[in-house]
Amino acid sequence: MKLSELLAGQNHHILQGDPGETDVTAGTAIDADRVAPGSLFIAVPGHQEGGPGAVAPALARGAVAVIVEDGHVPETPVEGACVVQVPDVRTTAAVVAARYFGEAGRSMDMVAVTGTNGKTSVSYMVESVLRISEGVRAGVIGTAGSRIGDELIPMPRTVLTTPESPDLQYLLGCMRDRGVGTVVLEATSMGLLTHRVDRTFVDVGVFTNLSQDHLDDHGTMDNYRDAKLRLFQGLCRHAVVNADDPVGVRIATLMPGAVTTYALDTDADYRATDLVVDASGTRFTLHHDGRKYPAAIPAPGRFSVANALATVAACHTLGHDLAGLVSALERMPQIPGRFERTTTASGTSVIVDYAHSPDSLNKVLGTIRGFARSRVVTVFGCGGDRDTTKRAEMGTIAGTHSDLCVLTSDNPRNEDPEAIMDQVVPGIEKTGTPYERFTDRRRAIAFALSAAGPDDIVLIAGKGSEPYQIVGDALLPFSDMATVRELAGS
User: Of the four listed, 20, 164, 170, 244, which is most buried by Cβ atoms within 10 Å?
Assistant: First the structure.
């Protein structure tokens, strides 16, 4: 495709070369080491694997054109390539990547899910209920990677939950070409803020909730909230929002006449009552448009029901049969790493969950306490290079709801794991709950399993289905559930 076609209508200034004579044949890239001959390289300032300083390596790998941002023109001469300057490379990146892949989002039903907690769960639920109820071929893009049904689409391990525009548009093109009817995308706050979700043509944007997290990225809760709200300021046609959350109420003012609500505690278009929770799941009554639907999900807790309501509301908004969707809820498989359950040979129940914020840990432990018959043992930690203000609070939450805490490493990244645990300990000690600490996560899980009795519940929180642990800059293979099964011989 000609570079001039990719840039049509965009504010740009040609520094050298002729976009009308420049053929982009290998897509777009913002990582210099992923440039192929015929690529368009987009130099994003501050991007670790790219930026203006990576123009020379990108050209050496065969880039035929370069887009730079105003004020970030490469210092060294650029030879043999077309160079174009734009006011904002990230917004331009979304446009040109979408155009290169034929604006694939227009060809499918697009659902984007944002919120602090529940993005992955709702994404899995949407794919599951559409497949179970109507045989819809759906794609999922998010924390656990990208897949069509159960088939993973191979991508570099560094690809983000909400991929950068070149990767996201490539994935959408792949899914369209393989007959996908619906795509569910996890839209993170940073993904929205940096325009990665632009030009995906979202039909339904889902808002789950907002609680403290990612302050290391956004600085304040107001900034964090405003990043989430970008989805509902021109990026989606219709919104499905949690009316129990104040931010959900605010979204209704941003998109008047185009908002569907769900709730457990307030009046809403989709509402759940009569919740009955046990270790195997939750039964409830779903109310919509004056009718009642008996419903059940194989996941315990109010937060799981809220996710189910969001799922049903989003799918029904797309035009799918409500009765069939509700029936499919009960037949959904477990979501990997989201209240994922197993039982050891000795009878100890083990739950692996992604809970890594104060709110999510409190909800998961509160749910477990609601059906626990004996002791609750919690294995958890806090991530490195992330918001430090939540560490003691998470210690207090774990200590309040547990009979024994096992403090360990989460993803320490470039922080000292012992120093991270030192910041969590005061919160646990405030509750008087006994605790042990192990830097090695495997040892921590082994200790918890050995300390638990037949009727006890062990919660392993923080990493969910992640198949690795981030130590320094290395991704070391590690799975909580696989470790449990190995240690327990199950």
Answer: 164
Residue 85: both structure tokens together: 């300057």
Residue that terminates a domain, selected from 329, 350, 370: 329
**Residue 445, helix vs strand vs coil:** helix
pLDDT higher than threshold 90 for residue 51? no
Residue position matching structure tokens 């904002």: 88
Q: What is the dihedral of CA 336, 341, 344, 346, to 10 degrees?
A: 170
Q: Please state the domain count of the chain.
A: 3
Once rounded to an integer, what is the mean pLDDT over residues 20-42?
96
CATH number at residue 457: 3.90.190.20
pLDDT at 49: 79
In a domain, 334, yes or no: no
Query: Which value, to the nearest 10 degrees, does the dihedral of the CA atoms of residues 356, 358, 360, 363 take?
Result: 140
Kindly report the CATH number assigned to the domain that includes residue 48. 3.40.1390.10
pLDDT digits (tens, 9 = 90+) for 213-244: 656 676 798 999 999 999 999 999 999 999 99
Strand residues in 298-372 grouped as ranges (E) = 340-343, 349-353
Of 277, 309, 329, the one marking the end of a domain is 329
Q: How far apart are CA 147 and CA 171, in angstroms?
A: 9
* Contact predicate 337/364, CB 8 Å: no
Alpha-carbon gap, residue 370 to 365, rounded angstroms: 9
In a domain, 320, yes or no: yes
* Average pLDDT in the chain: 95
Say how far apart CA 428 and CA 398 lie, in whole Å: 7
Beta partners for 404? 377
Look at residue 157 in the predicted model and tell me its pLDDT.
78
Same domain, yes or no: 33 and 122: no
pLDDT band at 447 (very low <50, low <70, confident <90, very high): very high
Q: Phi/psi at 133 (nearest 5 deg)?
A: -80, -35
Residues of the domain holding 397:
340-488
Give the CATH number for residue 249: 3.40.1190.10
Confidence (pLDDT) at 262: 98
pLDDT tens across 61-74, in order?
Answer: 999 999 999 988 77
